[in-house]
Specification:
heterodimer; A: 286 residues; mainly alpha; MetI-like fold; extended; B: 276 residues; alpha/beta; Rossmann fold; 2 domains; six-stranded mixed β-sheet; four-stranded antiparallel β-sheet; 10 helices; 22% strand; cell membrane (chain A); PhnE/PtxC (chain A)
Chain lengths: 286, 276
């Protein structure tokens, strides 16, 4: 069918999808660079160097007086508490919604084709599945900072709106991650459970949860690490903790106090990272 | 008394293309012991997944204990599944759970959710589980994590789960393909004895023709989704066996795991049921 001396290898198209993508991405980067007035060299030029040096010289020495250290400690503990409560609330929101938005839990054809469920039951499942997916999407799309501003209006200043803000946003994130874990499980043990006559709830409790648990724990610990940093930032808008202390110190130009608070933030973030790694090693068998 | 298993012109097509079972007809009476043999891709696993009500027939009739499986409500389907126990090739336990809990899972079809949760929580040994584990010879592994057990030990756990379920119909899909020959012999005789004592219907697919011929009064040969023979062991000749296991041209090129029914029509699996 082909000419005897025609090469079986077709010549490469001169212009393909790959080149278009590279060009578009390049244009987007250039546009963003110009649009943000970025000058990556600025901190290293003579003027920039001087400003950076001045700022750092004002930070030193950090204020280590007993009263300030007590404040820093109180702020750190409050931030830690906000991160723990926020993550706990996120699990309480994310786990049920994540389960309800996993098609392996709510889908009409799970491990078996044979289901025998009525049309009304299938419609209900569909509604619950879509509803919880949508709700998770919404919770996740609103950033923590916006949630914090909303809750500060609703419940007043302090650590509690911080907890609610972390819980709502992270709940949306964890719910999504949980539902993806529940959807990616090995179906064979689950099929075996279903074949014993177990209901979906029992397959979920005795099959899906233990199978997914290592991954669920891992995601939760990772989000806790993220939340300790976010909890510190949330203080800046008035949601308690170290962030609030940092904001006040900057406003009053008390740079040596600021240095202490920054060191405290760093210490607590590193401490949580270590604790999280330790828990991961202890709780999650490789 | 309705037969345990009644299959008439059963057809199972996956993805609208591959017929894993092709007009199969078979009847198994209550208390009968049947061995299923045939080459890879003959449709054995698909047949088992139809028999334990995980798959639904594309065409044809499948009646279990007189119930037409396509006409059952969700609840009666679960009740029927509770009366059918299945032992798989491998990988059908929850590795994170303790042995006790995997065996207790055999009771899930009969217990209320609250009762099941309590049994999983309560650390006292359960009488049925201890008895089943003793029968398969690993009572000492009661509180062990399932993932820590060897392949052969896990297979015994799977047998113990089926014992605790105490079904009327016991299905075993190559239950001994992952254990050594001595243990294979032991497990197959254990299954045959159990079926004998309890008057249960037993259908076992076996890789090893010798095991099938030695332990079962009825041998069913399956090939290309069709019945190849259905005979007592003394009528099975070397010609029949070589005919059964010679691969025909038409089967080549079809992915083996599709033919075997190892690929779920709902979830694509990363690995086939067994790579042996």
């Amino acid at each position: 069918m082909t000419a005897p001396n025609a090469s079986p290898v077709q010549s490469r198209p001169l212009w393909g999808a790959g080149k278009t993508v590279v060009l578009l991405v390049g244009a987007a980067i250039l546009w963003s660079y110009l649009g943000t007035g970025s000058n990556l060299l600025l901190p290293f030029q003579a003027d920039g160097r001087h400003q950076v040096a001045l700022f750092f010289s004002q930070l030193f020495p950090p204020n280590l007086s007993a009263s300030l250290l007590t404040r820093a400690l109180r702020g750190s503990l409050e931030t830690l508490a906000v991160s723990i409560m926020g993550t706990l609330l996120a699990v309480l929101i994310g786990f049920p919604l994540g389960a309800l938005s996993a098609y392996t839990v709510m889908g009409n054809r799970r491990f078996s084709e044979a289901e025998g469920s009525s049309a009304v039951a299938r419609l209900w499942r569909r509604l619950i599945y879509d509803g919880s997916t949508l709700l998770l999407n919404f919770l996740r799309s609103v950033p923590e900072l916006f949630w914090a501003l909303i809750f500060i209006v609703a419940v007043g200043l302090g650590p509690f709106p911080g907890v609610l803000a972390l819980g709502f946003h992270t709940g949306g994130v964890l719910g999504k991650l949980y539902s993806e874990s529940l959807e990616a499980l090995d179906s064979r043990p689950l099929e075996a459970l279903q074949a014993t006559g177990a209901s979906t709830l029992k397959v979920f409790l005795f099959g899906m949860v233990p199978l997914a648990l290592p991954q669920l724990l891992s995601y939760t610990l990772y989000r806790w690490e993220v939340n300790i940093r976010t909890a510190a930032v949330l203080g800046v808008v008035g949601a308690g903790g170290l962030g609030q202390d940092i904001l006040v110190a900057m406003g009053l130009l008390h740079y040596q106090d600021l240095a202490t608070f920054l060191i405290a933030t760093l210490a607590i973030v590193i401490a949580v990272d270590f604790l999280s790694t330790f828990l991961r090693l202890r709780l999650i068998p490789s | 008394m309705a037969p345990s298993i009644e299959i008439e012109n059963l057809v199972k097509v996956f993805d609208g293309r591959v017929a894993a079972l092709d007009s199969l007809s078979l009847q198994v009476e209550e208390g009968e012991k049947v061995a299923l043999i045939g080459p890879s891709g003959a449709g054995k696993t698909t047949l088992f997944r139809l028999l334990n009500c995980i798959l639904t027939p594309t065409r044809g009739t499948l009646r279990l204990q007189g119930c037409d499986v396509t006409r059952l409500s969700e609840k009666s389907l679960r009740e029927l599944r509770a009366r059918i126990g299945t032992i798989y090739q491998q990988h059908n336990l929850v590795p994170q759970l303790r042995v006790a809990h995997n065996v207790l899972a055999g009771k899930l079809g009969r217990l209320s959710t609250a009762r099941a949760l309590w049994n999983f929580w309560d650390p006292r040994p359960d009488g049925d589980v201890v008895r089943a584990l003793t029968q398969v010879g690993i009572a000492g592994k009661y509180w062990e994590r399932t993932a820590a057990l060897s392949g052969g030990q896990q297979q015994r756990v799977a047998v113990a789960r089926a014992l605790v379920q105490n079904p009327d119909i016991l299905l075993a899909d190559e239950p001994v393909s992952s254990v050594d020959p001595a243990l294979a012999q032991e497990i197959v005789s254990l299954l045959a004895d159990l079926a004998q004592e309890g008057g249960k219907t037993l259908v076992v697919s076996l890789h090893s023709v010798e095991l099938a011929l030695a332990h079962f009064p009825r041998i069913v040969g399956l090939r290309g989704g069709k019945l190849y023979f259905d005979l007592p062991p003394d009528q099975i000749t070397a010609e029949l066996l070589s005919g059964l296991f010679t691969r025909c041209e038409a089967e080549r090129g079809v992915p083996e795991r599709v033919l075997r029914g190892a690929v779920s029509p709902v979830f694509p699996l990363d690995s086939p049921y067994d790579k042996a």
